[in-house]
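Re: that chain you flagged

S.,

Sorry for the slow reply, it's been a week of failed gels. I finally had a moment to sit down with the sequence you sent. For the record, here it is as I used it:
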Amino acid sequence: MASTFLLVFKRFIFFILLQVLIFNKFDLFGIYNPYICLVFILTFPVKTSKISFMAVAFAFGFTLDLFSNSLGLNTTACLTVAYLRSVSYTHLTLPTKA
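Prediction finished late last night. Pasting the structure tokens below so you have them in one place:
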């Protein structure tokens, strides 16, 4: 459990720094900024609880909002993707035999 927490914490800091220092400087076609929050959320460990997963997704989106001045857009997107990932994962996995 501690190694999973450490892995998530390292990736959290890495992706926040990557977004703030590199990807916020890009300006594709003068309009679009690439966001890498999907990579962080979709590669999140599956064995964690849904509550902690949603809390980390909220913290990640909120931190991105603080640095990019997007007024909650990243938080909403991260929570929506995290919820859809957890719902789709429960529907796509096969039930295990006891």
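What I noticed first: The chain has four helices and no strands.

Talk soon,
D.
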